[in-house]
Design a protein that fits this description.
single chain, Helix Hairpins, minor pseudopilin epsh fold
């Protein structure tokens, strides 16, 4: 079955004032839509066409060379954005609340405190030159959380040999300019700081629990 843009769990306007309505519309329908269309085109007629996006990207090195680049960029973009939309919630409806339970304990164990984690995550966002993502990942071997950053539409599921960043991603932030430019212009730091106000920590906790299985 072809990949599709997932239905948003909130209205385009629901994340204001952190993310404006026009940015959400363009980001989902134009940018994410283009990734979906190009990913479907690249995989059409192949054995990977009906596989979950994460499974395809985990075996990216096995794809024919002429497919690898388009799939890496476009299916990576689809997977990243499909996760990203779920990681946010409207302010006052779950967005912005602090993590609790086992997730909060894991963050404190890895970074010392929630504030220290936020500082390190923001630093990864600001340290990414050009376009890319910052991630909070769970390493199943070390049983520890870590922060990393990937270029373009790479995702940690691609593995360290490709993405340079491994583990199971449980939280990710899009730092491509198209994610924030209409509202924040070149002020990436302001976008990152405001974004904490819409993070859906309940979804992050679900991702953390799934990564822990």
């Amino acid at each position: 079955m072809p990949f599709t843009i997932p239905t948003l769990p909130y209205a385009f306007s629901a994340l204001e004032p952190v993310i404006d309505t026009q940015t959400m519309e363009i980001h989902t329908q134009k940018h994410h839509g283009a990734y979906v269309a190009n990913a479907n085109k690249a995989l059409e007629g192949t054995k990977w066409a009906d596989m979950p996006a994460e499974s395809v990207l985990a075996q990216l090195a096995d794809l024919p060379e002429d497919k690898r680049g388009p799939v890496r960029n476009n299916l990576g973009g689809h997977l990243n954005h499909s996760m990203f939309w779920q990681l946010m919630a409207p302010p006052g409806s779950g967005g912005g609340a602090a993590p609790t339970g086992e997730l909060a304990a894991a963050i404190e164990a890895a970074f010392g405190s929630f504030d220290a984690f936020k500082g390190q995550f923001a630093a990864a966002c600001m340290g990414r030159f050009g376009s890319g993502w910052s991630w909070l990942c769970w390493d199943r071997d070390s049983k520890k959380l870590s922060i990393c950053s990937t270029a373009n539409q790479d995702n940690p599921v691609m593995g360290k040999a490709i993405a340079g960043c491994g583990g199971a991603p449980i939280l990710g932030l899009d730092v491509w300019e198209h994610a924030y430019y209409l509202n924040y212009q070149n002020r990436r730091a302001d976008y990152v700081a405001a974004w904490w106000g819409v993070v859906n920590w309940a979804q992050v906790a679900k991702n953390f629990a799934a990564a822990n299985k």
